């Protein structure tokens, strides 16, 4: 029997999709719009599932190689290494898939490309960098590894997360990211564009939040931007996000209506209701029946879904990856790669000469992370764990303590004890039980029962001690401590917000009312700080391993409020350094941290480094390898230097290394070496449309070293506010003592463009620029000036879109309609937007397209929002939310070019556009 054309691998992909699409019934096509795509047995189509987590190794499906977190991988500044990690991950995904096709799908949900605008974001460790270009090249490298090297067949199908402007967990489903056009086009979109345009990523997941008042899952940018870069791009929803369109977000009244709009906006796959597909598909069928959705809309979405399946080789006789099997999972080669990635990710933040370690026979390993490796929400299950203690113990004698307080808890009814079998905690015992107290920062504490070695958790409402540590989606093992009279405290469960109380039986359980909380006296029977200091004093060197727990005080669903190291951990660092001046602070965290002891002689940082962390740490500490890592994010002195967490306008708020005007604790790109480097002979020339720069880097030290040479530019004159510096390229070089290397940058002049709001496109201005080269964003060793011949932005004459202004105050960006367009709404009396250089020659009328629930007034002023000449005033009538009125005002034509302020005399006024008319 002859195979149908869609099974012919020699036929063009478009024709194969067309053939299969013609064979499917409408109901069968609808069945392909869910995460769990239904099989079509009559055509031989199997089931297909989107969504296998693979952020830094295969996750959630059992033991597999665990590589450093994404922020750690990026800190290597090594694109080939990142690609190889992606390739190893895809090998293991395929091995699991071949064993269990339904459990391990080939559509992988990685990498995360949201630029790390604010380090307080709970998911900071999932991203690569605060720089969009560096994020894009890292994501492209990782996605290339995931997709494989075969030109026509995908190994796995990488999915970029999360579109768009998503950096907060606080109320993430209901907050709207305020995104001016320049921030959209210069900062947010570039992180997505490169991996899509180059074919490395083949799918995108929209984010939970709204953008300028419109849910990201309904964004017109999906069709206008993403699919302009790759027409067959698959768009998959985030988990349960479609349901938010009517529930939390209330954007549409019914689910059929909401789902119809989502499909029309570009959503192809609904991750909703888990595997209960009929619930979601029923709403889509209702949308078809009600005329909200047409079959052609379904066909468009199904085409995208089928495109991925065809490119994965599902309908081919064979693929280049069919022979991958279980042997690759945690194989020696992947273990070696995990060790290499961890080693190259370490960043040496500070060093007074203590590192690399010499003449050391006994090391005190100290800290909550000294003998523990953490799994984060998107990591795999560790097949084995080489901790800091384990790695160092292979090199020298080690002594160890966690440096946590051992305490007792006593209520009015008597001491609290833990059940030896892991059951309920009970008050009223004759002798107090012992608990170890772990401080994870942000006021979050965990208690471990000494008798069982298990952590206190909440089972339903009862406190038990049966967990290996904080874990799970809903972490139920952490508590806050609230002061009560006479030196007592109340425990408040972080996850539920309930308090710990007791019943008549003495069992500790959760209660709703703070007045019912049991008052507990906490007595320290052994000080972790004192124990650590004693241990450190007797060692040649102290290695203090501190940091965060990836599931506590900052993770998906939870932002952090501070960048400070947990207070108890900070106290230990200070005490150990005083006891032994030869102290190395090793910070392990998924985000920047600060500490208070400024005299620690050496500080190393890495993200949580996976299974080979301890071996990698030992190699760096003892100088087997030069610390190669460099920061991909600014380390601030404190959160006080950051704008509001929900302020996405990095330009107006002077955020990220591009605009930050302060002196950071450690700058973007920072990282020390065990040797020294000199820079010389910078040359810059423009050849046609390409900028070429060269510089010579020399290792002036006595040992081999690795340098990451970084190129930045700054436009020195412009119509708009320009970045203080912007990364344009880098080169990682390995140099022997005395060796020199010439490093080069080739940059198309078009890359110097910024988004011109006056014409809605990128523009390269005629202007002087400065090219800088050095070791970080602030350690710039050489610079040279060059002139770019571009264009001069002309004065504005046409209709002025309200969202495309130059500056603003007290303004929120909102959706103009439920389908498309942006507008602005005033948040206070006197709010304003500014249009620079508006040509008013021959203009004497103005039409404002505006609306307000309460009515209001708009005044147009020249030159100043308070004292400038009032050109025109518009009364804004009361309207429904998306009902705008065109209000006309005449004015005495001032002639010439002016800065135009649109001043809102009331809050709650929405403005879509301003049309300047000619004089009568």
Automatic annotation (TrEMBL):
This is Exo-alpha-(1->6)-L-arabinopyranosidase. Gene3D superfamilies: 2.60.120.380, Galactose-binding domain-like, Glycoside hydrolase family 3 C-terminal domain, Glycoside hydrolase, family 3, N-terminal domain, Immunoglobulins. Pfam families: CBM_6 (PF03422), Fn3-like (PF14310), Glyco_hydro_3 (PF00933), Glyco_hydro_3_C (PF01915). GO terms for molecular function: alpha-L-arabinofuranosidase activity; beta-glucosidase activity; carbohydrate binding; xylan 1,4-beta-xylosidase activity. GO terms for biological process: arabinan catabolic process; xylan catabolic process. Residues 795-918 form the Cellulose binding type IV domain. Transmembrane segments: none annotated. Catalyzes the hydrolysis of a non-reducing terminal alpha-L-arabinopyranosidic linkage in ginsenoside Rb2 (alpha-L-arabinopyranosyl-(1->6)-alpha-D-glucopyranosyl) to release alpha-D-glucopyranosyl (Rd). It is not able to hydrolyze alpha-L-arabinofuranosyl-(1->6)-alpha-D-glucopyranosyl (Rc). The lineage of its organism: Bacteria, Bacillati, Actinomycetota, Actinomycetes, Streptosporangiales. Belongs to the glycosyl hydrolase 3 family. Keywords: Hydrolase, Signal. InterPro entries: Actin-crosslinking, BXL, CBM6, Cellulose-bd_IV, Fn3-like, Galactose-bd-like_sf, GH, Glyco_hydro_3_C. Residues 707-777 form the Fibronectin type III-like domain. It comes from the Bacteria.
């Amino acid at each position: 029997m002859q195979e149908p054309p869609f099974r012919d691998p020699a036929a063009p992909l478009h024709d194969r999709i067309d053939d299969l699409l013609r064979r499917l019934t409408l109901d069968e096509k609808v069945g392909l719009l869910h995460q769990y795509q239904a099989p079509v047995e009559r055509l031989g189509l199997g089931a297909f599932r989107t969504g296998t987590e693979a952020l830094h190794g295969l996750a959630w499906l059992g033991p597999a190689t665990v590589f450093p977190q994404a922020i750690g991988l990026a800190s290597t500044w090594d694109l080939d290494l990142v690609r190889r990690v992606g390739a190893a991950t895809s090998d293991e995904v395929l091995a699991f898939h071949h064993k269990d096709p339904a459990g391990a799908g080939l559509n992988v949900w990685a990498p995360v490309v949201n630029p790390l605008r604010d380090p307080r974001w709970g998911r900071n460790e999932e991203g690569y960098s605060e720089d969009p270009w560096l994020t894009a090249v890292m994501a492209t490298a990782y996605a290339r590894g995931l997709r494989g090297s075969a030109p026509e067949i995908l190994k796995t199908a990488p999915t970029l997360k999360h579109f768009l402007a998503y950096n907060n967990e606080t109320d993430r489903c209901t907050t709207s990211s305020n995104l001016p056009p320049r921030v959209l086009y210069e900062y947010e979109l570039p992180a997505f564009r490169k991996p899509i345009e180059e074919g490395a990523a083949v799918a995108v997941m929209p984010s939970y939040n709204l953008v300028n008042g419109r849910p990201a899952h309904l964004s017109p940018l999906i069709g206008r931007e993403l699919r302009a870069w790759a027409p067959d791009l698959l768009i998959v929803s985030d988990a349960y996000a479609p349901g938010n369109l009517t529930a939390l977000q209330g954007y549409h009244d019914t689910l059929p209506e909401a789902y119809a709009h989502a499909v029309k906006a570009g959503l192809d796959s609904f991750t909703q209701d888990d595997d209960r597909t009929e619930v979601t598909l029923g709403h889509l069928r209702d949308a078809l029946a009600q005329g909200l959705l047409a079959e052609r809309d379904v066909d468009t979405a199904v085409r995208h879904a089928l495109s991925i399946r065809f490119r994965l080789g599902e309908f081919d006789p064979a693929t280049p990856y069919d022979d991958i099997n279980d042997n690759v999972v945690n194989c020696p080669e992947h273990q070696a790669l995990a060790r290499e990635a961890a080693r190259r990710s370490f960043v040496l933040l500070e060093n007074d000469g203590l590192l690399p370690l010499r003449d050391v026979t006994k090391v005190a390993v100290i800290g909550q992370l000294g003998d523990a490796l953490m799994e984060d929400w998107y990591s795999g299950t560790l097949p084995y764990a080489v901790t800091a203690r384990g790695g160092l113990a292979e090199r020298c004698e080690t002594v160890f303590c966690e440096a946590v307080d051992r305490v007792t808890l006593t209520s009015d009814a008597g001491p609290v004890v833990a059940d030896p079998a892991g059951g309920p905690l009970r008050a009223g015992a004759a002798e107090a039980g012992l608990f170890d107290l772990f401080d994870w920062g942000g006021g979050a504490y965990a208690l471990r029962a000494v008798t069982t070695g298990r952590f206190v958790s909440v089972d339903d409402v009862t406190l038990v001690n049966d967990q290996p540590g904080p874990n799970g989606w809903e972490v139920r093992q952490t508590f806050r401590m609230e002061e009560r009279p006479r030196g007592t405290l109340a425990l408040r469960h972080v996850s539920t917000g309930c308090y710990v109380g007791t019943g008549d039986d003495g069992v500790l359980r959760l209660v709703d009312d703070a007045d019912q909380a049991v008052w507990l006296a906490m007595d320290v029977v052994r000080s972790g700080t004192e124990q650590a200091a004693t241990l450190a004093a007797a060692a040649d060197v102290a290695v203090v391993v501190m940091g965060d727990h990836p599931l506590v005080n900052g993770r998906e669903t939870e932002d952090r409020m501070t960048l400070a190291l947990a207070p108890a951990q900070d106290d230990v660092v200070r005490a150990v350094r005083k006891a032994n001046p030869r102290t190395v602070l090793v910070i392990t965290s998924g985000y920047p941290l600060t500490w208070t002891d400024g005299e620690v002689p050496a500080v190393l940082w890495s993200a949580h480094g996976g299974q080979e962390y301890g071996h990698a740490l030992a190699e760096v500490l003892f100088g087997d390898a030069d610390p190669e890592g460099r920061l991909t994010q600014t380390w601030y002195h404190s959160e006080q230097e950051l704008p509001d967490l929900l302020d996405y306008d990095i330009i107006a708020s002077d955020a990220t290394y591009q605009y930050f005007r302060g002196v950071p604790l450690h700058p973007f790109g920072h990282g020390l070496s065990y040797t020294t480097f000199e820079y010389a002979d910078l040359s810059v020339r423009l050849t046609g449309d390409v900028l070429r720069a060269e510089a010579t880097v020399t290792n002036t030290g006595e040992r081999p070293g690795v340098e990451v040479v970084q190129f930045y530019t700054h436009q020195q004159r412009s119509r708009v506010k320009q970045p203080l510096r912007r990364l344009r390229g880098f080169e990682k070089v390995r140099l022997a003592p005395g060796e020199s290397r010439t490093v080069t940058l080739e940059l198309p002049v078009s890359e110097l463009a910024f988004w011109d709001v006056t014409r809605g496109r990128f523009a390269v201005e005629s202007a002087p620029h400065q090219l800088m080269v050095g070791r970080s964003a602030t350690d710039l060793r050489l610079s040279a000036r060059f002139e770019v011949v571009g264009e001069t932005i002309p004065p504005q004459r046409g209709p002025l879109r309200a969202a495309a202004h130059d500056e603003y105050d007290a303004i929120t960006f909102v959706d103009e309609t439920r389908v498309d367009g942006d507008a602005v709404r005033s948040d206070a009396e006197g709010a304003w937007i500014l249009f620079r250089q508006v040509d008013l020659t021959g203009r004497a009328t103005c039409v404002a397209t505006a609306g307000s629930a309460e009515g209001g007034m708009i005044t147009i002023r020249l030159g100043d929002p308070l004292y400038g000449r009032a050109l025109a005033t518009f009364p804004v009538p009361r309207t429904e939310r998306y009902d705008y009125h065109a209000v006309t005002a005449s004015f005495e034509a001032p002639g010439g070019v002016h800065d135009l302020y649109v001043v809102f005399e009331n809050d709650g006024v929405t403005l879509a556009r301003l049309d300047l008319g000619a004089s009568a």
